[in-house]
Amino acid sequence: MSQKPDERPWDDLIELIDAKQPEGIIAAIDAIPEREIALILSRLDDEDRNWLLTLLDPSDAAGLLEDISDEQAAHILSELSPDDAGRILDELPQDQAVDVLSELDEADAEDILQSMPPESADSARELLNYPKDTAGHLMITEVLYYRDSLSIGDVNQDLQKKQDLYRSYHIQYIYVIDANHCLVGVMRIHDLLFSSKSSLLRDVMIGNPISVNGNATLDEISDAFAQHSLLALPVVDDAGILLGIVLPVAVEEAKRKRTVKHFLWLSGIVGGEEFRSMPLYKRSGRRLSWLTLNIALNIIAASVIALYQETLAAAIALAVFLPMVSDMSGCSGNQAVAVSLRELALGLLRPGEILRVAYKESTLGLINGVLLGILLGIVAYLWKGNIFLSLVIGVALAGNTLVAVTVGGMLPLLLKRLKIDPALVSSPLLTTVTDMCGFFLVLSLASTVLPRISV
Q: Which CATH architecture has domain 9-129?
């Protein structure tokens, strides 16, 4: 179904909903491209959207929610009755259902779980007990595993018998457990196909497989995939009991969500993703929570200048150099940020090597700071012919560059240890530091020689 750029694809659907024409609605839904599902659902009001989702078969309704973000899906389900929401949620892939439930209030999530089949609800609760972005939260529990005492023939017979059940599983490996359900090995599909039917799994399997604990962090899981090039990573508890598997796609999606969350946080959107289809008061609250805090941060930054307003008034030439000192130092600091980020990405640097980085960057920052300070000091002298003004600007730039380069080198490491994406957060934090430090150095140094530069 082709559309002109100025057409609104949701208008036809709204007309069909108003006319209560189920057959036409279903046909219209089938004709909507996947890329426009989120757009159209966001244009429907709550009443029309709720009616549409309850009209559709739960599996079809779940298909619509698969194409939108977890937070938007959670918002939509929260507007439905727990029974309707439970039927739809039960049709979603297990990992996505858990992600959607985790975006809901605890009470709302439990109401929906109560309406779901006990097996599905218990499995979801198990995953929800783990913190977000851990292996236990990201894993899927639909895993193909067998006892180590079984033979290849036993496995083939079971696969044939339960092929309808296993067809929906993500089968990359077959896992082998002992009598206590502990993971003891892994078997490739190749081993299953080309081993003798009488061979026992314990003789064919690869022992001591790579695995992660259910509480392993997103970065730990990502590192395991990067180091071992696995198609799936088994998850075990403290006793070594097999719990499930994590797929690479789940890790990449979790990293993408974390990046989006950090980006929104830096943009002042606190509390998760925001959509214009959300209630107005909720959107307002999310933005104001950051904006009100930002007022306080700006007051603190401005107070540095306010403390020295007499100095600034007496030597107005300082106002010209304030942004130059902070900006030039910021550029030097961002160079150090870039080097640290690159070395972290290449595995040449570890988050714990903060002191090493501080030493390396401070020596470089001292050299570059002195040279840049001399250059800007010369500019100040040529403009005003005042050696004291030249010294103030030169020393302030040298000191601020030293601070910026040292802090810029360490920030990515500190943020990495705090599980915050350093690529997104380092530069904004460094800008704040260099501005405040630069203003303070220029104005405090100028205050000590004020009579010499105010003439």
A: Alpha Horseshoe (1.25)
**145-254 and 308-453, same CATH topology:** no
The CATH code that applies to domain 145-254 is 3.10.580.10
* The token pair that represents 314 in the structure block: 């007496």
pLDDT in 10s for each residue of the chain, 455 residues: 444 444 565 677 777 777 777 777 777 777 777 667 767 777 777 787 888 888 888 888 888 887 777 878 888 888 889 999 999 998 888 888 888 898 888 888 889 999 998 888 888 888 888 888 899 999 988 889 999 999 999 998 998 888 888 887 878 889 999 999 999 999 988 888 888 889 999 998 989 899 999 999 998 999 889 888 888 999 999 999 999 999 998 898 888 877 776 666 655 555 555 555 566 766 676 666 656 655 665 666 667 777 777 777 767 888 888 888 988 998 899 899 888 888 887 777 888 889 999 999 999 999 999 999 999 999 999 988 889 999 999 999 999 999 999 999 999 898 888 877 676 667 767 887 888 888 889 888 988 888 887 64
Choosing among 1.10.357.20, 3.40.50.1220, 3.40.50.1820, 3.40.50.720, the CATH entry for 308-453 is 1.10.357.20
pTM for the structure as a whole: 0.56
